[in-house]
Amino acid sequence: MNMPIAQVQAPRPGTDQTRFAALWRPALIQALVKLDPRQLKRSPVMLVVALTALLTTLLCFAPESGVSTAVAIQIALWLWFTVLFANFAEALAEGRGKARADSLKAGSQGLNAQRRVPMAASKRLPPARYAKTMWSRCWPVS
After folding, report:
1. Is the pTM of this model over 0.70?
2. Residue 98 to residue 90: CA distance in whole angstroms
3. Which of 87, 54, 86 shows the shortest CA–CA distance to 72?
4. Could you identify which of 54, 64, 73, 91 might form a hypothetical disulfide with 27, taking C-beta atoms 3.0 to 4.6 angstroms apart as the criterion?
5. What's the pLDDT at 4?
6. Cα Rg of the chain (Å, integer)
7. In 3D, which of 26, 24, 28, 86 has the Cα closest to residue 53?
8. Can you tell me the distance from the alpha carbon of 70 to that of 60, in angstroms, rounded to the nearest whole number?
């Protein structure tokens, strides 16, 4: 027999932790922190792009280089934009993943499990006390 499930209220859009507005500031700060070469060496491609951006920036100030200063500045800006955008995208994805994991953890706090006991009445206990194979039903605590 199915047990009735209590109505769950949908979260308000303003309180959602995975929204872009709630995540972009920490992601921007984390993107700047990820400019550290120790962080960049985890991704060799981005390390090479960052080193090339640094070298190109230094060449902008070198007298009588083979490239005009305007072109060198434009190339350096595009390279720095690439590095910052990649770091920002990675930090934003990490922030969303953490927020989603926290949301799932918070959602499972109010559940009970019903243990299957052969030839006996079922017991209701928190799911943390039983292995997944022993669960019969889960429902919100009311």
Report:
1. no
2. 12
3. 54
4. 91
5. 56
6. 26
7. 86
8. 8
